[in-house]
Amino acid sequence: MKKLTPLADALDHILERAQPMDVVESVRLQEALGRVLAAPVTSDIAVPGEDNSAMDGYALRAKDAGQALAVSQRIAAGAVPEPLTPGTAARIFTGATVPEGADAVAMQEDCVLNEGVITITADVREGQHIRRAGQDIQAGEQLLAPGRRLRPQDLGMLASVGVATVRVYRPLRVAILSTGDELLEPGQPLSPGKLYNSNRYTLQGLLQGLGMEVIDGGIVDDDAAGTREALSRAAASADVVITSGGVSVGEEDHVKDAVRSLGELGLWKLAIKPGKPLAFGHVQGTPFIGLPGNPSSVFVTFCLIARPYLLKRQGCAEIEPPSVRARADFSITRVGTRQEYLRAILSIDGEVMRVSVGENQSSGVLSAVSRSNVLAVIPPGMTVSPGDTVEVFLLDLLSG
Ligand SMILES: Nc1nc2c(c(=O)[nH]1)N[C@H]1C(S)=C(S)[C@@H](COP(=O)(O)OP(=O)(O)OC[C@H]3O[C@@H](n4cnc5c(N)ncnc54)[C@H](O)[C@@H]3O)O[C@H]1N2
Ligand code: MOO
């Protein structure tokens, strides 16, 4: 038997060929969620712009706190205060600018107001309850680097410094094709020997979760000319073509021949389970990834191989799947020769992260993928006993 290729070797080969995208556009913050920054963002301003109050209360000089203080002005958020008259306090609200001359804020629960004069019932420290100018962001500070996939909290931060548009890469266009004569679309009546096309929906969701544009080529006709035509059409409109099915050793499929005739095809047998067969090449110059047909294999090979490749093409700085270590609630006694990616469930038990696995880990069992929230990584040659620590890839982070 031909030696299996370690995942890392295949990934090196594929990632070396992943040229980051160079088409950049400006979008408004409202449309920027999930997009990848193409240029650094630097703040022109400090946030907060001025010292402001963290509490509703009274602004004063801390050393005056022991005496009765007349309330000399009222400062609401958004107002520009007068300098504090020495020996007085200013009524102030959360977020309002601290007047010049004040160096502390006493919260109103610690103050007694009587006919326009306050007495303070608690100790007052210099600087207390004041949010300093620039404590969040300094003027001139670089906030985000290129390659950052923008999250909701990033958008909020950019808005806080007054940025209205950002330079981002155009979303990668990824064509997906499902191969197999046995496939029907949901909504069609089922007939003997047929099954519903699930890979199309898994792949579409994974790609949309990465903020990429999906060009859905549907089910490919199972004949040589139809397959060539579908691949050629997909390659003309997309940055990457991904197929599912037809990369194993059977003759019933036309994808491999069609890719060979239109471009170049490399085939691997990877030392991973599921997801042993994998194809990578190009169709008329457009990169091509052929994932195996089994639904769990599609999911796993997308997360492990297609995802980092696509993220690199998209210009992302972080392409590795996020992982943590957790305590196994299962055992593996049979030593495998391929690195296994078990569809598993991570839970938190007090301070311990535990990972359990469903019994049926067959690569055709998609319900186990749906139930899972992590992939537990079991290296070749490893046995696992309950209580052992294993690495898990966090799926919900992977696909979002
Ligand atoms: N003699 C050998 N046979 C197989 C080997 C091998 O090394 N030698 N490898 C096995 C492994 S591992 C895998 S994985 C599969 C991969 O096969 P293909 O990529 O050629 O995929 P298909 O044969 O087209 O389909 C496999 C399986 O998946 C179902 N399928 C395909 N597409 C879809 C879809 N869009 N939605 C739902 N299900 C789909 C298909 O009906 C098959 O059951 O090969 C093994 N065989
Ligand atoms: O690689 Mo296959 O995906 O083990 O079933």
UniProtKB/TrEMBL annotation:
Transmembrane segments: none annotated. Pathway: Cofactor biosynthesis; molybdopterin biosynthesis. Residues 175-312 form the MoaB/Mog domain. One of its GO terms (biological process) is Mo-molybdopterin cofactor biosynthetic process. Pfam families: MoCF_biosynth, MoeA_C, MoeA_N. It catalyses: adenylyl-molybdopterin + molybdate = Mo-molybdopterin + AMP + H(+). InterPro entries: MoaB/Mog-like_dom_sf, MoaB/Mog_dom, MoCF_biosynth_CS, MoeA-like, MoeA_C_domain_IV, MoeA_C_domain_IV_sf, MoeA_linker/N, MoeA_linker/N_sf. One of its GO terms (molecular function) is metal ion binding. The keyword Magnesium applies. Keywords: Magnesium, Metal-binding, Molybdenum, Molybdenum cofactor biosynthesis, Transferase. Its cofactor is Mg(2+). Catalyzes the insertion of molybdate into adenylated molybdopterin with the concomitant release of AMP. Belongs to the MoeA family. This is Molybdopterin molybdenumtransferase. It comes from Parahalioglobus pacificus.
